[in-house]
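Dear Dr. H.,

I hope your travels went smoothly. While you were away I took the liberty of generating a structure for the chain from your last submission, since the lab meeting agenda had it listed for discussion. I wanted you to have the full record in hand beforehand rather than looking at slides cold. The sequence, exactly as received, is reproduced here:
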Amino acid sequence: ASVSEDESRDFSQATPSSKSNSLRTPLRRGSSKIQIRRKDCNLSFSREELFKIERDNLTLLKKIMAHAKPRTVSLNQPFSHKKTSAAINRAKQQKKIDQDNYILYSKISAVGRTKRVF
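The corresponding predicted structure, in token form, is as follows:
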């Protein structure tokens, strides 16, 4: 079993660490100028079909991005943090406590103003 010149060239392009790392595979050349690793090859579609799918996906992505609303960040307005529900509940509870304290204060001060009769 002799190794052809193309196959020996493909294995010479492998990284030096490929001997220790079995996950890396040597690069191979196809009819196109794009190099594809063997582990990245799709067995369901031919290479031409994959390139067509990639082109179609890129075209669709460009169309979607053209219709997407541009995100504008206002530099003039400072970033405001959203209040958490715990903070809102704490504020409500504190307001209720303040109202109750005011009612008690007004009752106590009303009693203190009246004359004491013995």
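Two observations you may find useful: Residues 5-67 form one domain. Confidence is low (pLDDT under 50) at residues 1-26.

With kind regards,
E. W.
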